[in-house]
Here is the input.
Amino acid sequence: MHHHAADTHPSHQPATETLDPIVSLAPRPSPIAEIAFNLPLERSFHYSVPALLASRLKPGMRVLAPFGSRIRMGYVLRWVEDSPLKTLKAIERIVDPIAVIAEERWALASWLSEYYCCSLGEALAALVPAPLRLTERSLNPIDVKPAQPPVASPFSLTPHQQQAIKIIIDALKPLRARPFQEPVPGLDWNRQAINFKDVRVVLLHGVTGSGKTELYLQAITHVLDQKRSTICLVPEIALTPQTVDRFRERFGSEIAVWHSRLTQRQRTLEWRRMVTGECRIVIGARSAIFAPVTRLGLILLDEEHERSYKQEDTPRYHTRDVALARAWLTQATVLLGSATPSIESAYHAKQGSYKLASLPDRVAKRPLPRIELIDMREELTRRHRAGPVSNRLIQTIQDTIQRKGQVMLLLNRRGFARSAQCQTCGMAMRCAKCSVPLVYHASRQALVCHYCGFQEPPPELCPACQKGYLRFRGSGTEGIESQLHRLFPTAAIARMDRDTTRGRESHRQLYEALKTRQIGLLIGTQMIAKGFDLPHVTLVGILSADTALNIPDFRSGEFTFHLLTQMAGRSGRGDEPGLVLIQTFCPTHYAIQSALQHDYERFYAQEIEMRQQVGLPPFSYLIELTFHGSNRLRVQTAAEELSKCLRQPSVRRQMTVLGPAPHRIPKIRGQYQVCVLLKGKSVPSMVSLLRQQLQSGRRFQGVPITVDVNPL
Ligand code: ADP
Ligand code: ZN
Here is the structure.
């Protein structure tokens, strides 16, 4: 009676083989439906459909069904004629009045699961936000307001902008109608197979303040005229208030906003407006790429190089790649915008797969800000210790505040002090469950683990030797903030990091306060580097250019160059010229030197040469496997065994296996982590070889594995 659904369907094949969802969308008079769950199981399950539900049930709907010992949300894939099983459990309830998955989003889910090595259920779950609650009433078109007429009129474009918009509009020409294509089973979804000739991608490479956003607005206007819709992606929620304002000014109620901080009500409302075609512009963070809009014409990624476009949970997709896949399915155009394009996108543009549009100057002949380095090695010799803020920077902040300019300071580390170490025995306080030091947060009066959230009050005496006092070292944003209060007691100082922006409205409040100049001096993490267009910011200080440089990742140069350039771009956007001061211990590094000269081409040339020499992306594809478990030996053994299987001669030609190696954080929440890196020329062939080795539930020898395709 109480059988596990998973145990009673032995005849089922993996979902990826049984599925060609589009083929069987039409309901059949069958009381059996096939359901996929958001679980790492490569298969789907048969359920009987009670007569009361049968007339309403459709493929693409969410249902509640008993699975194992509990009720789970599942996705109806299709009706089936017959089941090899004699007793089937019954679906309990239909969740929404409509199918939440339809049209090309089926194919998109199937591509996601193929490419990112996850189950179809996991992919479908990524397409539909869990908190979505649609009801009959919420779906009724309520007092449909006519779209507000645009308020602000567009600028007349600069010559560079005119050239760029021509390229963009050219790429938006409707293609000869292609009937909606079903995903071909077994289709090789390699980028070559998506066929760049079919996906029209424009890379808009424009320096900060060059008027990219204005071009986005005009491109969208063009798409609206074609009666098609746009998905506009922005990297982070902190950016959204200002961008949304500019879009609302231009497009009024055509805009839907989509991000993870919406309330359930807002979410439902926006979903309805999208599916009904009531709004044709969706603006949001990465999950907006799955927005259920119809007649898609344009997918726009602002700041396409941003890391936040990478999803950190399964499926670990990159929004840019999903955008390409969806554009391929719908014949939409992709517009990638950035002041510092990712190496991958710049490479594709150089190869000619993407069209390139450039905006080399800021509008209104505004100069790019002057950038200067502060060599912290000199500071160290001169003062015998280097405080986090150099004398030069302190002086310049003082001057800027006196002249009523606004100042932004970047430090990419949260908390008050980054380490608490015993002065007597040298012991540093670490998290018991994670292999990382604890960070002192003064506002909470606690030592906090940034990985598992553990926190405890700092002990009076060192817990190891019981003699020494703890010394707090290495400032984070909170520490700098208190130091700034001491240095500039009359300044209006604010801090922006994950600790100060937990509230739903906190980003907007901070933005409003900056805009109205209630804040004179802002200290923050990389959150502040993005998007703010504040004309009175004339000084930007980067407290440590080396934080990003020192992370153990082959992209550290790229991350540093991006961050410095983006942050520098916040300065001097108004009438007053801007200044940027960068503190560093490695002033000769090419990423820092290129940022100093505003020289993207120089940076690209050096970086791409390095990548080519060692065969790193874009010259290869990587897959990172992370093995997890509380038993270190089992985790290590599983990693070694799988590596051995993947090194078999029959497999070897497809990929190189590196490792096993300890993870950057060898232990987290009491779980050991060991990594294996795969490197090859084609993601689909690597994934398919990997799939052959993995057991159900993405495990190997019972050890769970996280699969990260194209890790960032
Ligand atoms: P980016 O997105 O490249 O950082 P923006 O689109 O924000 O640049 O443009 C920078 C500033 O210049 C904005 O205040 C914008 O309103 C203004 N701007 C853009 N295009 C023009 C133009 N053609 N003429 C005058 N001002 C413009
Ligand atoms: Zn921890």
